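New to this. Please check this fold:
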Amino acid sequence: VDRDGWLDIATAQPALLRGGSSGFSSWSGAPLPAVPCTAVTSIDLDRADGWHGIVWVTEDGDLHRIDIATGSWQSDVTEGLIDAASAILSSDLDRDGGSDLLMATESGIQLHASRGALPVAGASIETAAAHLLRLVGALAADTVDLDGDGDLDLLAVGAGGIVEGINCLEAVKGSLDLDEEDDQDAEDSFISALAAGDLDRDGWIDLVVTGQSIYYEPGVTWILYGGESGSPIPSEEDAQMLLQGVDIRDAAFIDVDRDGDLDILLGAKHSIDRLVIQLAPRQWQVVNFPNGYSSDKTRRYQVGDLNCDGILDVAQACQGMNRIWLGDGNGSFVAQPQPFPPDITYSIELVDIDRDGDLDLISGNSTGRHNRVWVNDGDANFSNSGQILGVMEVRSIASGDLDGDGDVDLMLGQTGSGSVGFADAMWLNDGNGNFSEGPSPGDPYEATLQIALGDLDLDGDLDLASATVHKLKVQWNDGATFSSPLELDNHYHGTVILVDIDGDGDLDLFSGRFEEDIDVWISR
């Protein structure tokens, strides 16, 4: 503890013995806990200087920490963080260089991640292993690399014997309460749009979130900025309100004025859409979408260069006639006439399906209307390919090479009336923009609201994350077929997005959940 070259000993009594050339002696003056304790461990708090502190768990479930890194004793107490623990140990479970705490408690295994200080409430780790290790009367736990993949897995002892859990998808799971003061119906609300990116160019991922009540009353649109107190997770402690009383259904990022920063498109259902222009970092001007229509009832935006002029354009999915807007690079748009029928479109996807260098368009529509493939001629003129990707209601579209043949395939997240669902649909591309239906990864009784594709396990193929009426889940790609789902949560989830939140090179997960919470899952 004091870096004199001699090991010291801490016991759960509590007691602290100082090591020296003549053995161990009682360490007078150390600020030990004044109440009985059940467990003790050492912990490296700051990841840098090599100093170790000591953490005791008291009978009341408090954490009592001491260290002498500054030359004099320092101590602090975190009250009520855990149940009374029978064992505690520190290990770098999330591979960020800091010691996390693992505790065996009466209600099971608890993991708390360090963020350069003593682990605190709100940074508890949920893992596939942790779901397995909710043991009654957990007695002890230890960490070891069971599967030889370089990270630490869990061994736990409980009333039922020894259980082992493989460290698969760890997640720092936090719930962000968005608007306690501004939305009195927050308990009846859900996330209706979610977009992530570094808006203020400080190196941290930020979130645009908007909520509405289950009675479809307009809610509040926020930016939650990342980097608060050094944490990569966007926080309500550093939040900025953009709009109130507008029923926003989607958010998308675009550099509309080509000044190098991100502006925001907000799609509204019952009013004209909004364009939020970033004048300087965190300084925003909210204007009506140029030449927009209040009758469009926007459901989704997609951004891309549709006429190959180097300027970003916009595809708008509407509850009516979908629109193509060509950007002028100076903050305005002009509508480009298209032969789109008056569908009720919930989702669109811009992707080069025929490998000719321009972006084509996929539209996912309400039940009974054809889900269509539209081919771009390179000048933002779209023609109907004649292909019909089913007639089930599509709420979300994601694209990527799902079968490893080098072309872009499609995943359609499908739903039905209320909580009645249809199985999600996978459509495989022959390389020329012609699609055939592949095996469905979904449950025919599940109502999917949003999907996202990304390489979650770093094996080179695209895995699937799904937000549904009943759960949040991920599935691993086994080569154009998907594994059984790993259920991360069993509540209503309206949105899901995959992005590298903590900058460690792998994909993490944001999801919008009932009661205007955001679930944050950090993959290691």
User: Anything to note?
Assistant: The two ends are 29 Å apart (CA to CA). The first strand starts at residue 9 and ends at 11. The chain is about 0% helix and 45% strand. Residues 115-134, 168-188 have pLDDT under 50 and may be disordered.
